[in-house]
Amino acid sequence: MGPWHFVGRADELRRLIMAATSGTGRGLILSGTAGIGKSRLLREGVASLPTDRYAVWTAAANIAAAGLPFGGLAQVLPADQPAGVSPAGLLRWAVDALHRQAAGRPIVLAVDDAHLLDASSATLVYLIARDQHATVLGTLRSGEQVPVPIRALWTDDLVDHAELAPLTAADNKALLAEMLGGPVDSSSAERLWRLSAGNPLLLRELVIAASDSGELTRLYGMWRWTGQFELAPRLTDLIDARIGDLSDEVREVVELVAFGEPIGLPLLIRATGDAAVESAEDRGLIRLAQSDRRRNVRLAHPLYGEVVRQRCPATRTMRLKARLAALVEEAGARRREDLLRVAVWRLDSGTAQDPRMLLEAAAQAFSRFNVHLAARLARAALETGGGFEAGELLATILMFSEQPDAALSVVESVRDEIDSDQRRSRWLTVRGLVSYWGLGRESAVHELAKETPTVTDPGHRARVLAFEAIMRLHRRDSADALRLSREIIDRPAAAVSARALAQCVIAHLQAAQGKLTRSGRAIEGVVADAPQWRVEMPYLQLALELARGTRLTIAGDLEAIDALVADEFADLADAGDFRLGSGYLSVIRAQGARLRGQSGEALRGSLQACAALATSRVFAGLAHAERAYAAALRGEAAEAATALADSDRTQTPGMAVLYPWREQARAWVAACAGDVEVAIKLLSDLVARLRADGFAGHEVLALHDLVRLGCANLPVAWQSDAAPSLGADAEAQTVAQRLAELTGVVDGPLVELMALHARATADGAELMAVSSAFARRGLLLYAADAAAMAALRLRTTKSPLAPEASAHLGDLLGRCDTLHTPALRAARPPLTEREREVARLAAAGVASKQIAEQLFLSARTVENHLQRVYRKLGITNRSELSHALQARAEP
């Protein structure tokens, strides 16, 4: 792995540069742990300083030169030191030499690892810092002995001193993408960030170790880490240097914490003694963390645990885990999470004998969406005599671990243990779950309906009916799905989980129908009952999120979408590798980014969804459709077509309810390829289909797509035998008329704004107002298209508002990522001859300074030209320039 471009740390870099260029003379010393990125940050800051304005010298102190006078600054000072001069005279000579070399420019002296400077060099740095025409920048390693003159830099108030914090999660993710040459899925990036504790050096070694062991894989351009890696020598050397040699007593403390963290402090002291725990804390190996009223102990760095656990012999590991289980059991196992921890320790140590404990722990792990751990515990429960309950739970978990064949085998293995209505209802539903969604058998819904009468108890029958209802929803039997769901809600004997699943069906249908307020109330009811249904039926969360995501995207509620993808479920799904959950939420994240005009983020989110759902029969078709839509918005026709083909290949009939999103994407893929007439036909057909299904919420979005394609006055006729109350042949309406009609059907302000957009297509000033209204809601994709239509209309009519419209469009495009919709392509003004030449050279990789010299322009003029080009092309940086010029056929 070669060197990577500098990413992140924008605030720290800005502060470093300001210290050197502000003219105050105050420097900056950055402290931090080894590998935190101090040296790289210093190099980047110094490299950005113009040497024609500043005399910039850099020095890297090291242990080899620490005993030599001025050895630390040998790279900076002249080689011909005067002989026979006193130490004070040498210092005066060194200061004068630096000023002579500066030739009147302010001095910037940057010293890396200043704690390793020899005494003479440290004193010289102090003297330079006192000079009003000089600034000192430097780095120190935390915890090291610092020479007195260097410490005096901030105690005498000559420089600022700051601790360099670990990388943030966002910067860590950007660095991973730079290291690997492509985006990394969120859960993998999160795990690597936590394991490296934001240390770039450790992150690099982790990536190398994971790559070498084949645990980093790339799918649909997205890197994903399995969570496993082999300890590489370089990584273990780094950790060993931090841990050092351990006594037997301290090693026992570290091992118990490594296998048991977080472990209560009193428990650890009882197991190992006060002195050993205090010694481990003094050496920085463990740390205390307060949790409610309990003081827990964790390792000081996550990688310490990885090293300790992987090096511990298998028999010792089993003994330690058995001891941890006994310690917690003796203390009473008072907390809910203690059950899960003890069960895992018992299982790993070979001392698990209680199937009931294993079963309860498996259910708890599944309720946290840790599917792999839940499957281990449920299998162990089945093997130790857990019977029907263990088999039913294991089959369910295997289904959500994307092992439907194994799940079907397990559920069939406990068929003979059905001896009550309760067991029959649970067996029927888990078999239906596996058959319908896992194996893609559409006949499963009919088989389930046929078996329902065999369950005579009303409460248990409600569970079976709830599963039939959601199957029918997904295969687009809307009327039957609604009928069954209402029957369940009206049944007092129905369990909370059955009622919640029925409410999810109703909420989804209401969202699709545009009844967004009622849908929201139904969703709130399901959320309020979550504590009662989550342990019994945690996967109901998928139905809840599908209903909620559908509603929020139709409503264009970006704030609520952000809250949804940042909710606890998102974290649990990522951490537990619950791919159906994390994959669907990635789709929602991509849809939100698309509406914001952030096509790059939308594409990354959809690629992440595609990678997570690569083996899924449920949401894969939707993920690829969103990927196609994002690529189409970026003008990437070939990628959009490929993604759409992947959507068609992976879509299953059992998830037909997702067709509105897929058909919208299909239309925009056609528009991207230049087949606007085909796109219009696809959307017109979609509108008719949605109207026949009564999906007015989705219909509004499709109609507005037609408005964005310039078809507000297009007649849209429809015919439906499914809605006889509307007549077999309804009178044709224009798109604008139908949108106006739907303002009385679909809830919320967005439909009114879309109807206004349709009415305003002939009025540039009104289109400007519509664009501003979309922008205020954050819907920059719609705002940009409305602004493009306004600019084109006003330019065509030679309106005095045309310049204002162009400026407004440019501002919107500056806030968006790359966008290439038909409206934007039509409205973008042509580039001037000078702008074309600047853009051509920039796209060829020529630097601004060379462009300026070649075209006899100032550097500022070149940058101004480039910024205007970016706005006209709808891009944000040079890396997108070649593609954008090609798309516009610019020379």
UniProtKB/TrEMBL annotation:
Stretches assigned to the HTH luxR-type domain: 824-889
In terms of Pfam families, this protein maps to: AAA_16, GerE
Q: CDD domains in the record, alphabetically? A: LuxR_C_like (cd06170)
Per UniProt, which keywords does this protein have?
ATP-binding, Nucleotide-binding
Look up the domain of life of the source: Bacteria
Name this polypeptide is given: Regulatory protein, LuxR
For this protein's source organism, the top of the classification is: Bacteria, Bacillati, Actinomycetota, Actinomycetes, Micromonosporales
